[in-house]
Amino acid sequence: MSARQAPRDLLVVGSANADLVVGVERRPAAGETVLGSDLAVHPGGKGANQAVAAARLGADTALLARVGDDAHGRLLTGSLRAAGVDVSGMLTGGAPTGVALITVDPSGDNSIVVSPGANARLTPADVEAAGGLFARAGVVSVQLEIPPATVAAVARALRPGARLVLNPSPPAPLDAAVLAACDPLVVNEHEARVVIGEGAGEEPEEWAAALLALGPRSVVVTLGAGGALAADGERTVRVASPRVEAVDTTGAGDAFTAALAWRLGLGDDLVAAVRFAVRVGAAAVTRRGAQDSYPTRGELAAFAEEVRA
Ligand code: ADP
Questions:
Q1: Which atom of ligand 1 is nearest to the CA of 280?
Q2: In testing the pocket of ligand 1, which one of 239, 285, 300 has its CB within 8 Å of the most ligand atoms?
Q3: Is the pTM of this model over 0.90?
Q4: Over 80: is that where the pLDDT of 126 sits?
């Protein structure tokens, strides 16, 4: 195998957004104008978040995503590069970079409008043209902030034996073929309830069983401060989270999923990978922001020492 084809730890296919955040005393009613704080612009989007989270942990990570030919696109590419993500597969143009317009009130409640922009223009043809990225990827992680047809194309593009990790966020109906490829499907409570539909039940073990019945090879349910649950049809195991003082849970699920996908690619079994991922998720909630809160490998080691996780 030539150096160019050396296997890589993780390929993320997904969204890249600029998060535009303004603090307000209260949200405007229809037709009203309110003044807010200075604008803060943060790199975000689930795909970019996952890629940054994995790369900061030391994973050899590439991102396939589309941004606009604009300042937000350059901000995102810059933050990905700074984290060590391979951005050679990033695509530019077709629409402005996706943005999330976020207002936050003093109680911390936020209202968000997302303009998918270039994320909505990441096409099945873009996936098919990225054969080189897929040929090297033993694990591919994808979310639903890109078109459903593109997600289906990702499931078809996996090299033989490659593993698909899917976080259905924002939750939407999933193709049987996509579901069948998931190993695992990673959901929080809200996503579990939407994917299962009527009669989901109250216990995470019930959700895991109902989700497994839809076809994925394995399921992971994240439970916030409660950690996570792993189920593969043979066993269902709850993994506790380290106890931490949560400052900001933004992007914790993305850090969790990226860490999980990376460790599965390194050969961990599902429960071992979840044990690692809950430490990364817990570390991420102890700091503000999404990407800014993600631990490096060294920070994670220090954190694990501190919480004795
Ligand atoms: P999402 O961010 O998608 O809503 P969760 O809230 O379930 O998902 O969080 C994802 C993971 O982040 C959890 O499985 C856990 O590992 C970690 N996490 C989230 N909130 C906390 C918390 N308060 N304390 C410790 N870990 C947390």
A1: 16
A2: 285
A3: yes
A4: yes
- Report which protein residue has its CA nearest ligand 1's atom 6: 224
Distance 127 CA to ligand 1 centre (A): 30
pLDDT score at 109:
86
Q: Tell me, using a 6 A CB cutoff, whether residue 216 lines ligand 1.
A: no
What residue numbers bound the domain in which 288 lies? 3-28+35-308
Judge whether 120 and 95 are in contact, CB under 8 Å: yes
Any atom of ligand 1 within 6 Å of the Cβ of 281: yes
In 188-277, beta strands by DSSP E: 219-222, 228-231, 236-239
What is the distance between the alpha carbons of residues 75 and 19, in angstroms, rounded to a whole number?
Answer: 11
Which pLDDT does position 199 carry in this prediction?
Answer: 87
Tens-place pLDDT, residues 175-225: 999 999 999 999 999 999 999 999 889 999 999 999 999 999 999 999 999
Rounded to 5 degrees, φ, ψ at 203 are -100, 140
Task: Give the residue numbers annotated as catalytic, written as ranges.
Answer: 254
Residues in CB range of 225: below 8 A, 6 or more apart: 241, 243, 246
Place of tokens 């943005």: 99
The CATH number covering residue 41 comes to: 3.40.1190.20
CA dist., res. 48 & res. 67, Å (int)? 11
Distance (angstroms) between ligand 1 centre and the Cα of 258 equals 13
Q: What is the mean pLDDT of residues 284-300?
A: 94
Into how many domains does the chain fold?
Answer: 1
Mean pLDDT score across all residues of the chain: 95
